[in-house]
Write a structure and sequence with these properties.
The protein contains 5 helices and 6 strands. By secondary structure, the protein is α+β, with helices and mostly antiparallel strands. It holds the Pfam family DUF3000.
Amino acid sequence: MGAVTELNSTPDVFRAVVQALESARFRPEVALSRIAPPRGLAPHAISFAAEVGHGLHRRLTNPEEPRTAREAPASGRFVVLYDESCPQPWQGPFRIVSWFRSRLDAEMGRDELLPDVSWSWLTDTLGEHGARFTAEGGTAARTVERHYGSLTEQADVAQVEVRASWTPVQHGGPQHWAHTHLNAWAQVLCTAAGLPPHHEGVTYL
C-alpha cells in the first residue's frame, strides 16, 4: 500500500481515520483492498475497492481490472476525503465518496422502482448502523442488457449502479465514526449482492 501523502504532512486527525479504516474487519464474503485514491479532489484521501460474493475469501489482486464488476455479484469503491478548509458544499472537513454496482435478476432490473430501492439501501443502512451523515447526494441507475443474433441464447443481464457522496457527522472519535461508515457501506454491498444478514458465530451454508 502506498502512502496517501508524506507522513510528516498528514494531519493527525486524518491519520487517525486511516488507522481506523485499515483496522476494519468484515464478514468472509467481503474482499476489501486499499487502492490509490483519486487525485485533485482533496489535499488528503484514502480509497478502497471491494468485491462481495457468495463464498468469496480472497482479497482483490487487481482492483482496476474491468472484469471485476462482472465477476462478483457486487463491487464498488469507498473514498474518504479530508480538507481542513471545510469546502462549503461539504459542510465539514471530511467527505465520503462511493459507488457500487450489483448484478441482478433481469426481471428485478426491469422494475422502475429499482433506483429508489437501491438508493434506500445506502441511506437506510447508514442510519441503521448509526453512521450519521449530512449533505448527501448522488445518482442511481439501472440497465438491462439483452442479447441478439448469435448471442440470443444468453440470458438477459441486469445491473444497478449507485454513485453517492455524503459528509460524515463526527461523533465518538475517528475510530468510531470512520469505522461505522465503512462497515455500513460494506453491508450495503452485501445487501446488493443478495447475501443474508450476518450474525457473529453463525455459519451460513
